[in-house]
Every structure is written in structure tokens, then in C-alpha cells.
Amino acid sequence: MVQRSAVFQELWFSAHVVYFFIYFFLYIFLSGLLTVPPGLKAGMDFSETSAALFLSPLLKRSRSSHWSLCTDTFPPSSSSTATKIEEGAKKTKEQEKEGEKKRWAIPVDITSPCDDFAKRIPDPAIKWPFELDVFQKQAVVFKSHLLPLCLMFSLAFPSRTIYTSPIKALSNQKFRDFKNTFGDVGLLTGDVQLNPEASCLIMTTEILRSMLYNGSEVIRDLEWVIFDEVHYINDAERGVVWEEVLIMLPEHVSIILLSATVPNALEFSEWIGRIKKRNIYVISTVKRPVPLEHHLYTGNSTKTQKELFLLLDATGNFLTKGYYAAVEAKKERTSKHAQSFGAKNTSQNTSTNQDRAVWLTLLHFLSQREQTPVVAFTFSRTRCDDNARSLASLDLTNSTEKSEIHSFFQKSLSRLRGGDRQLPQIMLMRDLLKRGIGVHHSGILPILKEVIEMLFSEGLVKVLFATETFAMGVNMPARTVVFDSIRKHDGTGFRNLLPGEYIQMAGRAGRRGLDATGTVIILCKTSVHDMAELHTMMLGKPTILQSQFRLTYTMILNLLRVEALRVTDMMRRSFSESHRDSQVLIAELRKSLSTLPPLETEGQLSDLLSYYHTITELRITTQALQRTVLESVNGLKALSVGRVVVVSNVQHTNALGVVLQVSSDAVNRAFTSLVICEKGNEEMGGATQTSSATPHLYRTALFVPEGPCSHTVQKLKLQDISAITSKTLKVIPERIIDNYNKRQQPRFRLEPPGQAISTATQELLRLAESNPGGIMALDPVNDLHLKSVDVVEGVMRQRALQESLRDFKCTHSPTFSEQERMCLQEELDQLLFLVSDQSLTLLPEYHQRIKVLEKLNYVDGAGAVQLKGRVACQISSHELLLTELLFENTLSPLAPEESAALLSCLVFTQNTQCIERVLGVAQRIGELQMDYGIAQTAEDYVSQLKFGLTEVVYCWAIGMPFAEIAELTDVQEGTVVRCIQRLDEVLKEVRQAARIVGDSVLGSKMERASLAIRRDIVFTASLYTH
Known about the structure:
- With about 1050 residues, this protein is of the alpha/beta class.
- The chain has 38 helices and 25 strands.
- The strands form 6 sheets. Strands 13-12-20-17-14-16-15 form a 7-stranded mixed β-sheet, sandwiched between helices. It has a 6-stranded mixed β-sheet with strand order 7-6-8-5-9-10. The protein has a 5-stranded antiparallel β-sheet with strand order 24-23-22-21-25.
- Strand 22 (about 655-660) and strand 23 form a beta hairpin.
- Helix 22 (about 585-595) packs antiparallel against helix 28 and helix 37 runs antiparallel to helix 38 (about 1000-1015).
- The two termini are about 25 Å apart.
């Protein structure tokens, strides 16, 4: 009993969070979820008054080493809490009576003081080396009221908690943290199982998903799941895993979600609450226990080493004075055009010698000011290594620290073979670490990364050159954070850091209980960065959580196999379909329709119904044509700088704009545009016209402001552009954007717009006034030369429909605009369609994938999973390819080491030569997918396979030492190790699949292959688990 309670405490206390118990206890007593315990037929009856009030609190991680509550209120005492519970329950019932839409996400107030904490809790279970925040004190106080009853329930109904993390390294770290304080903790990763019977299990989210699909017994006893770093749901590749798990978790499981960067927490919580039918309590705080100060650094020599300029103070004020001081300091060493607002277009590339000068100057300066340890975020593995190697003359440790580092390094690596201890990377890192310098990125050997992390946490690594993954994977704060650059490559091109990325990394500065403030420094190597870009990065809103839900063959086959949840149910409950909660609005529309008089169809209104159907078809035809135009190469070419467009979105209706800048991101293409609007409506958008009053009219009239004309500069998406006009304007984009961004700063907000903006705005207004009925758009066929049958037929149909509108008599009726029934009926029909399966965005792709599975005999015509389908269910990635290789006996003739080498193409991520044997199967699957309409081309499908480590893996499998295989490739050692570790998981999956088929020979061969690669430095146990 005590042990299990301790484990629950550790989930928060070890990370300095002290509010978990309040939810756990309230959950047991107030939610009613476990009135009947698992395995029993009867239970206890609890009062309804406060049912489900604290079921699934959404928590948020602070931007330092502690956990913090996240959003707005918290009860000061148990009595006031009970009152709020009753009020909340009463309000919910009143809302239901009045037919209001139920809100599942509930912000919680954390502002109530707790002055008598020491009196209430004289002997806390754990003592902290710092003063608790108010919300933390309140949580501990409230927990004490319910502790005895909770312990009783812990004895009566044993249960489990699962803590999930996005990456294995974080799982290992948390296992050590929890295990050191409390004993009953287990770890489950792809290659390690430690104490799997523990009441608290730590695992990656993928492991939990596998448990849910396979009906693991762990789920039966599961009570809580904690999702750490839940903003990982934004990850394009793995975000779908979080959605799958959240959707599939059983009803009796409560959830806690933690993140530092979720600006749309209420929206996200609303989705979770709706699919789980539970209130979600959103708890957040914007207060940092250690405030941050952000600086610009322009020094590069002993003479200039003190050129550190405060840009954003601890209270969040952006100091333009500091910015201009940095520009002034840099003036003598930069070109003249960098003097006003920074060198926006000046290259930030520097030579190795220049970088060395900057780093030596800065690190000497910080060391003198006792502002180490430092994390230096560098967005290139090569540059991390180069920066560290270039500091050969820098020594930041004393003799005692050198001795500690040497002793720990030797002890940690003692488990390695003699040859492995002499690897070049290990020798280099040993020299760097002795001088207090470390490097941390995916190319570093896993055991070395753990040594570096542990030395850093002890303060023995004074400067750590790290990539962005350090901020995500390791919870280790520093005194100072330095940004080598504010630009990174995101896979498609270079861009500035997003606000959420900057916050995540900058938040590593400041150690609670040690530092009054954390220091963040941005290097200005060649020039000072653009002011507006810095302001956006530091004070902009983090990227909102967006659904990355997608269909995979494994998901489809697993859901067809278990039958507990249909694939369409999974799609309907996904975050991407969160707009589907419209039942209350549907009921309201039906009620409104029942009170309206019947539709008039006499006299002039006799053709009203036909008119309505005509404009509906015209609207759909026009929208379809516009989508085709915007997705075409010629359409995108037309959207160049200076093109006048018609903008229609939630902010504008038929407002003219001019394109100023086109983003290079082909996936999320954006068009920075100047759009005219009403004076005073710049923030909310300028259109005073709306189509909601009379949506049955076909509107082409352009927006013309009723008062003075103003403007706004916005990033438009393709769907915001309703027409590409034939007009172009001569504009100076850089001046317009710079002037607009400058006037967004408080200091310059009242300045008049620059000449370039004024001219463009007046030109757009003149065009709107001279074309009030609409402006000529580029013709898809004649102007853009789109000659496909669909486009030509669409244009002809659009023209015919437009011409037919002239013949309708109903538009001349004095009561035409009063025919509200048709508007409401259309809205109702749209809502009914939206909540139907037919509107699911991924439904067509689902049918396409089902056809592929049927063709390959994974499922039959009735959707029943066949033998090949059951085999594919055991494989987490490349499921079709591996299954086909298995059934075609491609692997059977190969020796174990040859099988391992061949399968390495599935886990390596760098491209080189190909092997025809696997490519033929991959090409066939890719072509079959294309035949059934799946967007991925055969070439793209085949290109996923990388054979660059085939020889390396083969040599490793036959017993060659790691030092020798490292000489066979220029791939970094850490990447090789990670590839072989992932390969082991693939071999296990193939072994399990072979046993399902009944091929025991192949199964044993895969087992021998796995044993052949599981050795030495590649599979050395984590330092965190021993």
C-alpha cells in the first residue's frame, strides 16, 4: 500500500510537482468510475453531486526542471472546493436543461493564496530545496484531507499507472529518477523489460499502443496514464500514435497530459473530453519559477567580449533600446545596410575561425561571470562537433573536477570491450569532457550521451553543444542557454525558429533554487537579426496542436481484427474531425425550421427552389475550379509577388489583396499579402460585408470600406484566396513588410504607414471602387492553360450557370431576402452531412487501402482478416513489404547475418545504393497503391528503403568489432548503433510473424540473427537502468 502510494507521489514529486494526489483522490471518490472494481460484480455507490469533476486534469510542464499546473484556477481549501464542485455540477445540469452545448474543457483558477501551508502540512512526505508555488501548496493541502480513504482504496483495488514519453532516452531517465526514490517502478521499451509487474510502468507511447491493440493484461488493471510532452502529437510521423492511444484507452482509465507549449489547450481538451465523455480540467500557469532574460551578443574578441545587450527582460518587456544598442555595436563590423533594422537578407554564414573567436570570447566571458553550465543549441550535428573541437585551448575545469570526470568516465565505460573503449569518438569525448566540454546529438554513441548527461547534471560539463533533441529528450536545466543561430533546416528548407521551438529550448535556462534568473543569449555573428523576427520568435504564440492523424495498414488490420472499434469510429474520433460535435446545433436548427412558415412558391417566387439549387451548384462548381487552379503549377506561378487576389475567409469577404511574399515551404505554402480593410478593423480583419445574412445570394461584389480605408498584412493559405485576378501591381515587398512589422511594435504603433504601403492600399481601393460588381479573374483554360477535361467542363458549366441566373424571377420579388427557410435547411443539410461517415476526410483513402489489402489477400471481401493480415498485424512499420517478403520466401534461403543485412534497409535513414531483391516487391506494392488511388507514388514508396548500412550490418552480424565496422562507413557511430537497435526490433517482429505462418525454420533463423547483432557496445545496458 505505502509503496504504491509512493510511486504515485514520485510521478510528480521527483519532478517537483505536488498536485497529483488531489486529482487521484477526487477521482476515486467523486468520479464514480470505479464504483464496480475490475473483476467484481458489485461496488460502492457514490453521490452524483460531483461526479466526474476532476477526472482527467490536463497538466502542463513548466519551462524548467519542475512540473507545473497549467491554466487558471484552483480551490483554496476543501470547503470552497466542495462548493465549486456543487456549483459546477449545478451549472452543467442547467446547461443541459437549456439545451446549451456541453463544454468538456474547464479552466481551473490557481490564484487563491495558501498562507497557512506550514500549519496545515507540518511534516510533508517529501521536502524540497525551494519554496513551493501557490498552486503546488494548495494541491498538497487538499491531498491531506483524502489521504486515509485513498490508502484504503489502494489496498482494496490494486491498480497501475503508466507514464509514457515520446522517446526512449526520456523513458530511461525517468525510470532512474523514479526508481531511485521509490522501488515499485518498471520499464518497457523495444529492447528492455525491467520489472514489468510493477504498479508504475514507464514506456514509450508506441509500446502502449501495441498493448492496446494486443489486449495486454496490463490494460485491465490500468487506472492512470500520464502523457509527457503531449505536444509531440504535432509530430508529422509519430503524432498519430498519441491520437490512437487516447481514442482506444478504456473508459475506466483516467489521463493526465503534460506540456510546456500548448496554446490551444482548451480546444485540445475539448476534443479529449468529448471522445471520453468526461470533464477535462485545464490547469496552467504562465509564471516561471525562474524568470528568463534574453540577450543579443555581438562580441568576437577580448575587446568586445562584454557586448551583451538585454532584449527581453524578466517581466516580458521587449526592449528596443537593447536592440538598437546591439545594432550600433555591430555597425563598425558590418555593412551599412544592416544599420537600421538588422541585416535581414545578409548571410549569417561564418568561417570556422570566426566561429571559434565568437565561442572563445563568449565562454571566457560567461566563465568569468560564473554563468556556467551553458547549453549551446546548434542546429547541425557537424557544427556541434566542429565547435567543440575548435575549443582546444579552452579549459573550464579544475583538478578536482578533472579527477571526478575521469573516474566516472572510466567506471561508466568499464563494461565495454577493450577495443570498444578505444573508439575515436570515445577518445575524443574523453579529452573534451576533461576540459568541461560536451557534445550531445543523435550521432553520439548512446552510452556516451548518457555519460555526458550525467556529468552535465552534476555540473561537471560547463558547456554542452547540443541539437534541438536535447531540449525534448532530457530534463536538465542550465544556468545559461546560447543559440548559435535562430535558423534551422526542417526537412524542406531553412526557416527561423518557431515560438514554441524557441520556448522549449530557451526554457532550459534557469535552475530552480540556484539561479535568480535564467540567461538566454542569441549570437549575432555577422549581423543583428531582424527585430520583427526576434519579436515574433520570443513573444509569438507557440504552434497550436494539430491533428497528424493518418491511416496505416497496421491500424486498419488491427481494428478489423479486434472488432471492438471500427476504423470509421477511429477516424470520427480523431482530433482532425473535432468539428463534428454539432448535435446541439442540429437540434436548434430543426426547432427553428419547425417554427417558420412554409416556403413561398407562388407568383414571382415560383422558381425560388430552382434558383436555390442553381446557386448551390454554382458555388460548388466555382470552389472546385478554384481548388484545381490553386493546386496547379500554373496557378501557383500566377500567385507571384504583385498579383492582386480576392480574399475570403473568417476575416474578409471578397476583399482585394496583393501578394508580397511566397513561402518556400511546398507543404504548408503561405502567401504574405497586403489586404484592404476598414479603419479600426486591422486586427480582426476588414470585411464588414458578411454572407451569413443572405447566403442564398450568389455574391461577387467586392468589399469597399464604408469609412477610411486601412490595411493589414497577413499570411494567407490557399483556401483563403477565392480568386486570382488578372491585375498586378508594382510593389516593394520588403519595404511594405518591414514598415508594417515596425508599426506593430508599441513604440511605433502610432506612426503613419510608409509610402510603399500607402500607394499599394490606394491602388487596391481604386480597383475595388472601379469594379464594384466583381473583378475579372484569370480564366483557368485560356489564361492558365489548364486543359484537362474536368477543368474545361467545369469552366463551361460555371459560365452556363452564371448566365442562367439572369432568367430567374424570384430575385425581383420584394420578399426574396426574407426566405429564411432555404438558408436554414442548407445549414442543416451541411451539418447532417458533416456528422455522417460520408464526410470523413480520410474515408476515400480508407476504401482505397481496403482494396489494396483485398487484392493482396490480407482481408476478404467481407473485411475479415486473413492469414497474411494477421501476420502484418505483428509488424509496426513496412508491414506490407515485410509480409510479402515473408510469404514469397525471400528471407528463407539467407543466412541469419544476410537476413539482418537485408532488413537493415527498413531502419536506416540515409540513402545510397539499392538491392534489386527487395525493390521488386516494394515497386509492386507501390504500383498497386497507385492503381487504387492512394496518393503516394511507387517511387516514393520505394525510396523509403535505404541500403547504406547493409555491409556494416552484415559485418557486425558475423562478429566484426565495432571499431572496424565504423571504418566501413562515414555514418556517425551513434546513428549506426541506433540503426542496429531498431533492426533488432524488426527481426523480433519477423520472428513472431514467421511463427504465425508456421515457418519455424525462419523463426529460429530470425532469432539467431537477433542474437548475432545483440552484443558489445551496440546493446550495452543504459546507465540509467543500472
